[in-house]
Write a structure and sequence with these properties.
Elements: E1 7-16, E2 19-29, E3 34-38, H1 45-52, E4 60-65, E5 68-70, H2 75-80, E6 83-86, H3 98-102, E7 109-110, E8 113-114, H4 116-129, H5 145-158, E9 163-167, H6 175-190, E10 194-198, H7 202-208, E11 211-216, E12 219-225, H8 231-239, E13 258-267, E14 271-279, E15 283-287, H9 294-301, E16 311-314, E17 317-318, H10 324-329, E18 332-335, H11 339-343, H12 350-356, H13 369-382, H14 399-410, E19 417-421, H15 429-444, E20 448-452, H16 456-462, E21 465-470, E22 473-478, H17 485-492
Parallel strand pairs: 3-10, 3-11, 6-9, 9-10, 15-20, 15-21, 18-19, 19-20
Antiparallel strand pairs: 1-2, 1-4, 4-5, 7-8, 11-12, 13-14, 13-16, 16-17, 21-22
Helix pairs in contact: 4-5, 12-13, 12-14, 14-15
């Protein structure tokens, strides 16, 4: 391992055109510690990390490494100084092998030739450090997400990383993979590497960091030893208000006949004979561990993968669904958890994404340009989407605003039933609250809402009832009065029947 490194930000300013995203940020990071960087999306933390890792240049102020001012012109310069940023969307070449990825851009040579042997031996060594038991000649596309992440970290170690920035590293990991990552972080810290951990999962921040640094609206707000701040206080510092009101007060459980009734839904390989009912005005949760079959169950229902049911009825009439579009036409809408892949047209602007929804809820179909702009602004305001103008591209919006946009998009042909898969994944606390209020509003308007979520506290705080899946079957249907995190975990892990 390289020597430790001390980093200091001194009055950093960053402007993108007329928009100032960092307003004179100053704080320092002592070497060999784990810092949690807490901030809502859009608070400037990503920009700050990109400056640190050489992807962006500051407009003003400076960054000092071990007391010496530094300005990286590229991520390669930053890596040479031992600063490596591990992205959420891994920077790996899928078709190359693990060893080739580890040395990409830093290949070892002997004279004219690539020194394949030394690179393989060195790759083997750093894979050993991260405890990834894979042949260095394995193509990266054959790895699962958790393994790709370990390759990224191994690559950083091959570069003698002294400061490792990890952005939402556990977002797609199973509990077991998360534990392995935390153990690896502890070893790196013991070897003097400084770790900057960015996450919205405050329980993890509480567990793995020594100190938390909080940013809000492009400014540095606080830096505290982790053991001196509660999760509640962390959240309040990020948002600038108390978080006890994160979930709206729960409305009474609606009565009446089933709005959606599903009998004996089977999705080969994923779900077996699942039945459930949803009433108008009800928020129904689906809980379960990774691999329990929740997402696949609904993909089967919506025609995204093969599935069959004994019966599916909406408002008493049988549904025949062969595609999500057909489902939407019949009043059943789905927002997938893979925002970039299936939910949003990320390359299009807000206008196109909202126009795709035909703006039906806000205006008649025969809109002229002025009326369309008016309707668009109404929709943006309605969903609390924060963007400078309606012409911005969806890709440049923060995660929270992308998610609100995706929600706005599915809600436009007015649906009777809305299925939301991980509606707040990777979304900051302020945006979470907006999304919860929106979900409640949908239910109050008389729709049925289904929420699939891995965050138990979200299911407990939001839902009227929760169906728990385990191994492809619905093993419990938990109503008010028994709805606790403990109860959900017990059924999800199969310890209670």
């Amino acid at each position: 391992m390289g020597m430790s490194i001390a980093v200091r930000f001194d009055g950093l300013v960053k402007e993108f055109g007329p928009v100032r995203v960092l307003h004179g940020v100053s704080f320092e990071l002592a070497p060999g510690r784990v810092y949690g960087l807490l901030a809502e999306n859009g608070a400037g933390k990503s920009t700050l990390m990109k400056i640190l890792a050489g992807y962006e240049q500051p407009t003003g102020g400076e960054m000092l490494l071990d007391g010496v001012p530094q300005r990286f012109r590229s991520s390669r310069e930053a890596e040479n100084a031992g600063i490596v940023l591990i992205h959420q969307e891994f920077n790996l070449a899928e078709d190359l092998t693990i060893a080739q990825n580890i040395f990409l851009g830093h290949e070892l040579r002997r004279g004219w030739w690539l020194d394949e042997r030394t690179m393989r031996v060195e790759a083997q060594r750093v894979l050993g450090l991260v405890e990834l038991r894979r042949d260095p000649d394995t193509p990266v596309r054959r790895l699962i997400v958790a393994e790709k992440q370990l390759v990224e970290i191994a690559r950083a170690l091959a570069r003698q990383a002294r400061l490792l920035v990890m952005d939402e590293p556990t977002a797609t990991l199973t509990p077991g993979e998360t534990e392995a990552l935390f153990a690896l972080m502890a070893r790196l810290k013991a070897e003097g590497v400084t770790l900057l951990y960015i996450s919205h999962k405050l329980d993890e921040v509480e567990r793995v960091t020594d100190e938390v640094v909080v940013m809000r609206d492009g400014r540095f707000v606080a830096r505290r030893p982790t053991r001196e701040v509660t999760r509640q206080e962390m959240a309040s510092l990020m948002v600038g208000r108390e978080m006890s009101d994160l979930f709206p007060p729960r409305d009474p459980v609606p009565g009446g006949a089933a709005l959606l009734a599903v009998r004996g839904l089977t999705v080969p390989g994923w779900a077996e004979g699942v039945s459930f009912e949803l009433r108008a005005g009800e928020i129904l949760g689906f809980a379960g561990l990774v691999g329990a079959g929740r997402t696949e169950l609904f993909e089967g229902l919506l025609g995204l993968r093969p599935g069959s049911a004994d019966a599916v009825t909406l408002e008493g009439r049988p549904l025949r669904i062969r595609s999500p579009r057909e489902a939407a036409d019949q009043g059943l809408t789905y927002l997938s958890e893979d925002r970039k892949g299936k939910g949003l047209h990320v390359a299009l602007g807000l206008r196109e994404n909202l126009t795709l929804m035909a703006l039906r809820r806000y205006a008649a179909p025969w809109l002229d340009r002025a009326a369309e702009q008016q309707a668009l602004e109404a929709a943006v305001a309605d969903f609390g989407i924060r963007a400078g103008s309606t012409a911005v591209r969806a890709a440049s919006l923060s995660g929270g605003n992308q998610q609100k946009l995706a929600l706005a998009k599915v809600l436009h042909p007015v649906p009777r039933v809305v299925v939301l898969d991980e509606p707040t994944r990777g979304v900051d606390i302020g945006a979470k609250r907006d999304i919860y209020l929106l979900i409640q509003r949908l239910a109050r308007e008389g729709r049925g809402v289904i929420v699939i979520s891995s965050e138990l506290i979200e299911l407990v705080g939001l839902c009227h009832r929760v169906v728990v899946m385990h191994g492809g079957r619905a093993v419990a249907d938990i109503g008010p009065g028994r709805l606790t995190e403990e109860e959900l975990i017990a059924h999800a892990t199969g310890t209670r029947h």
